[in-house]
Amino acid sequence: MKKTLMVAALTGVFATAAHAQSSVTLYGLIDAGITYTNNQHGHSSWQETSGSINGSRWGLRGAEDLGGGLKAIFTLENGFNIANGKLGQGGREFGRQAFVGLTSDQFGAVTLGRQYDSVVDYVGPLSLTGTQYGGTQFAHPFDNDNLNNSFRVNNAIKYQSVNYGGFKFGATYGFSNAAGSFANNREYSAGASYNWGGLNVAAAYLQLNNGGSTNTGGAVSDDFTFAATRQQTWGAGANYTFGPATAGILYTQTNLTGLTGIGASASGFSSGVTLPSNSAHFQNFEVNGRYALTPALSLAGSYTYTRASLNGVRPNYNQFNLQTDYALSKRTDVYLQGVYQRVNEGSGMVANINGVGGASATNSQVAVTAGLRHRF
Fold first, then answer.
1. What is the 8-class DSSP label of residue 122?
2. What does the alpha-carbon distance between residue 151 and residue 161 come to, in Å, rounded to a whole number?
3. Where is the Porin domain positioned along the sequence (predicted)?
């Protein structure tokens, strides 16, 4: 009996020690809501929607302590539509993220796999479309700067530094994986951020060559935003938190050369506009803010002005976004948000709020969503 108790005790000690050295965490988020849109292809609509703010997902995150401040890490993250149970990101098993790597307390982290680019990593958190305060529907037109991570980077190697007194930097390179065509559908990006007290500042740059090309094994394949010879996106922003309030501003610019196609957002073109066959440009100016009325109740809002140039057509977009959120617990909250988008008349463009399921038949569109989010 004593031997049995001793074996059981020793087994528990070793199991505890092993658990302390390595871990695997199951996590997730489910976002479901009801959305009213005043005009989709000429008709109003009521829809059950998934991921109106944050895409529904579940994932596994793990780490193994290798000693000396070095760890092996991995993340496998699946995206799905809670309304119908289908996989997201083109039906991928782990379409949101899938990577493995090493992280050092002294030198930073190097990871390999399907990952986010540096614009998403550094500038995204300063925009309401890159946070829990607005998310998908608050994206800039066509998500032209990818702040709402419409695409991820395949075949990517990423470096992220440690925090040097509030300063961090990183870079990502996505291989084309094409023999003899090293630059055909490759990506590279870099960014940096600085935090001091309540101040956050960040900037990043991305270049994608031949995204959405016939090289489907490259950096960006079927989830591309634009099919173009070259896509260049850069942005910078800042926000400041004082007490329960945060105010921010940011600017992004996307330049496209040899544009031949647009992904899921193509419905934002009316029949009177020819798809650009040479170049296109987008400039986005966003001001945003949020305020915690109580520990549970918050308000957030933003205004985005987008100036575009598309094959001689120069549409200007104005988008107003407002959200109120109430936390029922640390893991569950309910929200109500509204978006109004208007594009100038005479441009031949129609309004198309991101994530509502279809473009308007006119130059304006309104969407209102009541939703529930649960984290685990």
1. I
2. 23
3. 8-343
Block residue for tokens 């958190």 = 125
- 8 Å CB contact between 230 and 280: no
The separation between the first and the last C-alpha atoms of the chain, rounded to the nearest angstrom, is 41
Check residue 89 and report its DSSP letter: G
Instruction: Tell me the C-alpha to C-alpha distance, in Å, between residue 56 and each of 29, 59, 151.
Output: 5, 10, 16
The span from the CA of 322 to the CA of 328, in Å, is: 20
Report the sign of the C-alpha dihedral through residues 78, 27, 299, 338, in that order: positive
Q: Cα torsion for 48, 53, 59, 64, to the nearest 10°?
A: -170
139/319 Cα distance (integer angstroms)? 9
Which pair of structure tokens corresponds to residue 366?
């309104």
Instruction: Assess whether pLDDT exceeds 60 at residue 202.
Output: yes
**Is 80 exceeded by the pLDDT of residue 17?**
no
Strands (E), 13-93: 22-40, 43-50, 57-67, 70-79
**Cα-flanking dihedrals φ and ψ of residue 188, to 5°?**
-145, 145
**Residues whose CB is less than 8 angstroms from the CB of residue 287 and which lie 6 or more positions away in sequence, other chains included:** 247, 248, 249, 302, 303
Does the pLDDT of residue 123 top 80, yes or no? yes
Instruction: Tell me what pLDDT residue 312 has.
Output: 78
Phi, psi of 16 (to 5 degrees): -65, -40
Give me Rg for the CA atoms of the chain. 22
Where does residue 340 rank: exposed (0-12), middle (13-18), buried (19+ CB within 10 A)?
Answer: middle
Give the tens place of pLDDT for each residue, 160-175: 999 999 999 999 999 9
| In the block, residue with structure tokens 């390999």 | 112
CA distances from 267 to 152, 172, 212, 275 (A): 22, 31, 17, 11
Enumerate the domain spans of the chain.
25-375
Q: Is the pLDDT of residue 266 over 70?
A: no
